[in-house]
Amino acid sequence: MKNLLLVTCSIVALGAVAPAFGADLAAQPVYKAPPPQVAAAIYDWSGLYIGINGGWGFSDATGGTLGGHIGYRQQMGQAVFGIEGQGNWADFSGSNVSTTFALNTNRSTTDAFGLITGLIGYTSNNVLLYAKGGAAVTSNTHQVTSTLTGLASTDNTRLGAAVGAGVEVGFAPNWSVGVEYDHLFMPDANVSFTTAAGVVATDRIRQDFDLLTLRLNYKFSPPVLKY
């Protein structure tokens, strides 16, 4: 009888403690895994692109220019390598007193030019800084005006070199805008004319000029998300 009473009291005591123990378990915090981190999109400069450009040329000959370009770039880490071809209409003209013949005035005009250049750059996401260099070709007209012999003129195409640098910013998955400076190293042009004494003389006309252009590009391959 005494054992039965002890068992009964134990069961009653256990029943009283169980709800409190369960309440303590329910109050324990539940662990939740942190939300996954989403990586920011990284702009990829790799791919074929086309674009338009326009701006100003200045030096001994000054004026406006408008044209187009096409190229391909490959990004490797933060380095970018590429090649580009560019063709522009131009209206560069200028004149100066001849350094060879004081009575002569030299005048040159450039109506078109083209560039084939290689590119190397450094990118920080959608911003690209680059330098470029390569070959240049210009279509020109050169004139010598002499108070003694009148006017002499020649048309020619000159081959030279070009170096430049620029910055470009991607503002949409396939679009970018930039500004570029270039210097064209062109050989001086020789213009021959006949003097009053019937002697054929040659004068030299300087041809180097600088370019400052704005550029708008469309890249055919879309950017790739990297994590």
TrEMBL record:
This is Outer membrane protein beta-barrel domain-containing protein. Keywords: Cell outer membrane, Membrane, Signal. NCBIfam families: autotrans_barl. Residues 1-22 form the signal peptide. Belongs to the Omp25/RopB family. GO terms for cellular component: cell outer membrane. Gene3D superfamilies: 2.40.160.20. Residues 39-193 form the Outer membrane protein beta-barrel domain. Pfam families: OMP_b-brl. It comes from Bradyrhizobium icense. It is found in: Cell outer membrane. InterPro entries: Beta-barrel_OMP, OM_autotransptr_brl_dom, OMP-like, OMP/PagP_B-barrel. PANTHER family: BLL7405 PROTEIN.
